[in-house]
């Protein structure tokens, strides 16, 4: 565990010390790089006073190759920086994170460290296999392939010599002609077919064996490449760091929050009040359209799908109550929630409007809290 303030890590350090025998804490100073090289920890917990300082230290010890081997990195952070820590892990800067201030879930911390040890140990075994055996396996396979090829050529040459010997007459003595003819017949009917079959079997069998060895050789080379990739410790990308430390989580997952898909129409003839409403809703990540009167609102509703309409009661061209009636006609009596914007406290008017599909109302002037409470109540 790397730290810069001992008081910050007392609780977390005592929990891990109970769990892991080979555990130590290192105060971050000028010798931190050499200490990491000496101890070569398989799991590293960064517990500096801020996420940014942890990123800077981690980048430094990787860049100067103090940390140049496979390991498991865990970022410890304060609760207020948990969002940044989460984004760091999503971006691949660290393998995991844990909120250690305040320290509520000690068993989760133990599990994170336990999993980190398991992962790093399996990785080290994989790397050890490569260091001790991978190179000799490749050499052995290459030797077997060469020997197989030499054996094939030797056997085929022997068969060829045998065929040549059988085809050459041993004598021209007439007394032995009958024996020669008999031997020739035996050669043609028995020995030559057997030699041809043997030759074919040798070619097929040794070729298959050599091909299998070649496949194994390719597999060894692929394994070497994979292990070499595992050995690499990438320096954190600067763009990923900037995005991780950003207050906007949207840059992380490229996913829009649910509210980005909620489309709201604000219908208000008072431009100042309309602008105020639009700004409040946009800051909450709603997708907001606006209109200055009822007729303009109806045109927008015909061409777009809205989840909610905020509408003033008294407007030129078409007032709020009659615009709401037209909305029902456009949507085929399907419900489109409408919230009234009005300074008029006349209960009869509000009741008449409610009969046309009014779902709530906001009395002007209104605060940001009142506006958002009314909007969320209807949407939820």
Automatic annotation (TrEMBL):
SMART domains: REC (SM00448). Pfam families: Response_reg. Keywords: Phosphoprotein, Two-component regulatory system. InterPro entries: CheY-like_superfamily, Sig_transdc_resp-reg_receiver. Residues 263-379 form the Response regulatory domain. The keyword Phosphoprotein applies. PROSITE patterns: RESPONSE_REGULATORY (PS50110). Gene3D superfamilies: 3.40.50.2300. The modification 4-aspartylphosphate is found at residue 312. This is Response regulator.
């Amino acid at each position: 565990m790397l730290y810069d303030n001992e008081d910050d890590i007392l609780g977390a350090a005592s929990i891990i010390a109970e769990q892991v025998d080979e555990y130590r804490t290192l105060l971050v100073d000028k010798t931190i790089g050499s200490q990491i090289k000496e101890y070569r920890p398989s799991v590293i917990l960064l517990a500096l006073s801020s996420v940014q300082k942890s990123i800077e230290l981690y980048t430094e010890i990787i860049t100067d190759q103090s940390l140049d081997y496979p390991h498991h990195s865990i970022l410890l952070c304060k609760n207020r920086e948990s969002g940044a820590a989460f984004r760091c892990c999503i971006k691949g800067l660290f393998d995991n994170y844990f909120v250690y201030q305040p320290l509520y879930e000690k068993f989760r911390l133990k599990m994170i460290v336990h999993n980190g040890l398991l992962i790093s140990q399996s990785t080290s075994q994989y790397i050890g296999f490569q260091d001790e055996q991978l190179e000799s396996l490749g050499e052995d396979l290459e030797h077997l392939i060469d020997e197989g090829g030499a054996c094939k050529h030797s056997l085929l040459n022997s068969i060829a010599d045998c065929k040549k010997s059988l085809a050459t007459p041993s004598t021209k003595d007439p007394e032995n002609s009958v024996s020669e003819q008999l031997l020739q017949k035996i050669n043609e009917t028995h020995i030559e077919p057997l030699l041809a079959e043997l030759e074919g079997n040798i070619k097929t069998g040794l070729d298959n064996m050599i091909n299998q060895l070649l496949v194994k050789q390719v597999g060894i080379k692929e394994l070497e490449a994979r292990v070499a990739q595992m050995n690499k410790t990438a320096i954190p990308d600067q763009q990923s760091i900037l995005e991780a430390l950003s207050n906007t989580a949207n840059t992380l997952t490229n996913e829009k929050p649910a509210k980005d898909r909620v489309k709201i129409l604000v219908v208000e003839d008072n431009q100042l009040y309309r602008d105020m409403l639009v700004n409040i809703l946009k800051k909450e990540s709603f997708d907001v359209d606006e209109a200055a009167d009822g007729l303009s609102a109806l045109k927008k509703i015909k061409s777009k799908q809205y989840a909610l309409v905020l509408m003033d009661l008294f407007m030129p061209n078409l007032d709020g109550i009659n615009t709401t009636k037209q909305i029902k006609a456009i949507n085929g009596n399907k419900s489109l929630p409408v919230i009234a914007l009005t300074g008029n406290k006349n209960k009869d008017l509000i009741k008449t409007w409610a009969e046309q599909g009014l779902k709530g109302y906001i009395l002007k002037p209104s605060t940001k809290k009142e506006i958002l409470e009314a909007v969320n109540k209807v949407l939820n």
